Amino acid sequence: MFENAVKNKINLTRDNKKSDFHIAFGISKTFTYPVGVLITSILENNKDMKINFHIFVDDELSIQVRHFF
Q: What is the mean pLDDT of residues 12-30?
């Protein structure tokens, strides 16, 4: 049923170290900027942790992905 649910995977990590914590978001493509702000806040307030974010979006994000860089 969900074999084709993930259409695209973009890895934005700089290393392959094991994460201390995983956080997942399910968003619409219009929420990319606010979730970017949220991710920035989480990273700024948890600098001692390696956090891995998983973002699931309801539509293609080709243009909006630049908000995460």
A: 77
